[in-house]
Specification:
The chain has 136 residues and is mostly beta strands. It has 1 helix and 8 strands; from the N terminus they run H-E-E-E-E-E-E-E-E. It has a single domain, classed as OB fold (Dihydrolipoamide Acetyltransferase, E2P) (Beta Barrel). The strands form 2 sheets. The protein has a 5-stranded antiparallel sheet. A 3-stranded antiparallel sheet has the order 2-1-3. The longest helix has 8 residues. The chain is globular and about 45 Å long.
């Protein structure tokens, strides 16, 4: 399945192009030493400029929602699906999908790992998460 392409030409473009290369690249506040999400030009805490830094993509589900009525037409027929805030082990958190996970298996604290899927734009990828089989 190809996922809808994110909107290009915004602050997050480096994130989406790195995902196409199989890398989880996130905005990072060098001044305070933490990842920031969503992408912006400046840190929401200290207003210093952000740099881009790679994350190893391992973490845990912080909170999640099971979507039973899709907001986008291309997701019709794929419900239910899971949207979650992932707390990354190397700092920060990101909003993403948890794929190939039956709703009854989703739980806060579950360990996840980042994977990358194709989008309808061949230049942009999408990071998604899957339950970490090693921690089951």
């Amino acid at each position: 399945m190809k996922y809808s392409a994110p909107r290009n030409g915004r602050e997050a473009t480096p994130h989406w192009t790195a995902a196409r290369e199989g890398r989880l690249l996130l905005p990072f506040c060098v001044e305070q030493g933490h990842f920031c999400w969503p992408p912006a030009e400046r840190c929401p805490t200290c207003r210093s400029p952000l740099a881009w830094r790679e994350s190893d993509g391992k973490g845990a589900i912080e909170t999640f929602s099971i979507v039973r009525r899709p907001a986008q037409a291309e997701w019709k027929g794929k419900e239910p699906y899971i949207v979650a805030f992932i707390r990354l082990d190397d700092g920060g958190r990101i909003l993403s999908n948890v794929i190939d996970c039956p709703p009854q298996d989703a739980r806060c604290g579950a360990r996840v790992v980042c994977e990358f899927v194709e989008t309808t734009n061949p230049e942009l990828g999408l990071p998604v998460f899957r339950l970490d089989q090693a921690s089951r």
